[in-house]
Design goal:
With 168 residues, this protein is α+β, with helices and mostly antiparallel strands. The chain has 2 domains: 51 residues; 97 residues, no CATH class. The chain contains 4 helices and 7 strands; from the N terminus they run βααββαββββα. Strands 1-2-3-7-6-5-4 form a 7-stranded antiparallel beta sheet, with helices on both faces. β4 and β5 form a beta hairpin.
């Protein structure tokens, strides 16, 4: 991960404090009105809480827009565990995700250094379902790029982050 992304470890009890510290720092630095700061905090907290129920383990946030309360990008990393060898392969997952995708979404199987993955792409989101070693489930990298979209430089950065994933 690039060093200028703020990391919130959702596996620790203190994640709310980490997230609140981030929101307070960014909204103070950008002179954001208190009601907007509360809205940002509520949205990010709700996103983290709902994602925790779906296996989220880390939440990365990127800011760099002076005077703005918007986040140009975020990354939510989730583990989707499955019994060894019983999860769907990339082709089967591709078919499943394609059948559930909105008409404006693109779904494709891509090759990453970490192995075969299924990528979902909309104008503002990019997701990578990467099969974990030992076929014990999937690691989901869920990027959101609401300001410039996935076809801009931030989308290219998100794609590069996914392509930097390696198993050690």
């Amino acid at each position: 991960m690039p060093r200028d992304w703020f990391r919130v470890d959702l596996t620790r009890e203190r994640w709310r404090h980490q997230l609140k510290t981030f929101v307070d720092k960014e909204t103070t630095r950008n002179s954001v009105p208190p009601e907007v700061a509360r809205s940002v905090w509520t949205t990010l907290r709700n996103t983290a809480e709902s994602s925790l129920t779906q296996g989220a383990v880390e939440f990365f946030l990127k800011t760099e827009v002076p005077g703005s309360s918007a986040l140009p990008a975020s990354l939510l990393i989730s583990l989707v565990p499955m019994p060894p060898g019983q999860g769907p392969g990339a082709d089967e997952l591709f078919r499943e995700l394609t059948s559930r995708a909105d008409s404006d979404a693109a779904v494709e199987v891509v090759q990453l250094p970490a192995g075969q993955a299924v990528r979902t792409l909309t104008k503002t989101t990019m997701g990578f379902h990467v099969r974990m070693p030992g076929e014990v489930g999937y690691l989901l990298l869920a990027f959101s790029v609401p300001l410039c979209g996935t076809e801009g430089p931030m989308g290219n950065l998100c794609d590069a982050i996914a392509h930097s994933l390696r198993w050690v």
